[in-house]
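Q: I'm building a small set of examples for a reading group on sequence design. Run inverse folding on the following structure and report the sequence directly after it, with nothing in between.
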């Protein structure tokens, strides 16, 4: 199942940066997908957070992403965990998608949605799937194609799809992702320092990111309360520019606009 780890965010960054240049804006997409198999075979009860997989065959004239969603009674079942899609190359291919829920989740249909490189939906396919998730169930046995497709995807991702991740670009993206993660706790620290060190107009400028970040933190907490597995993603992508902004302000106004030092304790 998908956890928001360094490697997964790196793949999301790669997909966003690399795939966006592979398809001209305004082109008419010709994409067909179909779900040819699911695993484990329904009807079935799965332990909480256990993945239910679908095998998706596609024909596409552009790179695309594939992601799964669970439906029940004609409505999408929210609070799902799902695969973080890699970018699949144009042509004929096979993709692997999955969906999972906490205990109490239930679906009667799984849908695979095809997106373009900018995460705009293109088309979708569905298959019946009577599946429920409980606190504890008998271990499910996945079909052999689940491991085969999973291993193939991991190989492609580890190779950078195919080789451009093994050189300087790969190192740069590793550093970029690490900096993005560090900026999440780093921004509040820099914000407090800037508010303390600066004064006058500089202090007002330093407080400007709060207009964006306070609602962002509120949204992240809301997403966490809804058990979204992507709840911190907004903070991860918005924190780096705010860190850079505060660093620049502190450098520009480091002289002559500082707050007075803390008073010394009596008798010291």
């Amino acid at each position: 199942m998908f956890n928001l780890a360094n490697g997964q965010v790196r793949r999301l960054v790669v997909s966003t940066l690399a795939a966006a240049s592979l398809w001209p804006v305004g082109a008419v997409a010709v994409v067909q997908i179909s779900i040819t198999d699911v695993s484990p075979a329904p009807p079935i009860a799965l332990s909480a957070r256990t993945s239910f997989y679908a095998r998706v065959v596609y024909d596409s004239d552009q790179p695309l992403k594939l992601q799964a969603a669970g439906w029940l009674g004609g409505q999408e079942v929210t609070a799902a965990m799902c695969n973080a899609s890699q970018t699949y190359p144009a042509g004929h291919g096979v993709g692997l998608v999955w969906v999972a829920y906490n205990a109490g989740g239930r679906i009667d249909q799984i849908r695979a949605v095809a997106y373009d490189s900018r995460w705009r939906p293109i088309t979708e396919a569905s298959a019946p799937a009577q599946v429920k998730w409980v606190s504890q169930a008998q271990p499910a046995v996945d079909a052999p194609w689940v491991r085969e497709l999973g291993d193939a995807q991991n190989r492609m991702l580890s190779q950078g799809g195919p080789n451009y991740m093994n050189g300087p670009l790969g190192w740069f993206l590793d550093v970029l992702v690490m900096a993005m993660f560090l900026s999440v706790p780093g921004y509040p620290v820099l914000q407090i320092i800037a508010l303390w060190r600066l004064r006058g107009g500089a202090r007002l400028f330093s407080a400007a990111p709060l207009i964006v970040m306070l609602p962002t933190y509120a949204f992240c907490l809301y997403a966490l309360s809804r058990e979204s597995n992507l709840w911190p993603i907004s903070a991860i992508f918005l924190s780096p520019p705010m860190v850079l902004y505060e660093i620049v302000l502190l450098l520009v106004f480091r002289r002559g606009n500082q707050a007075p030092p803390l008073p010394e304790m009596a008798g010291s």
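Strands lie at 31-39, 44-47, 52-60, 65-72, 75-76, 81-82, 91-100, 106-115, 121-134.
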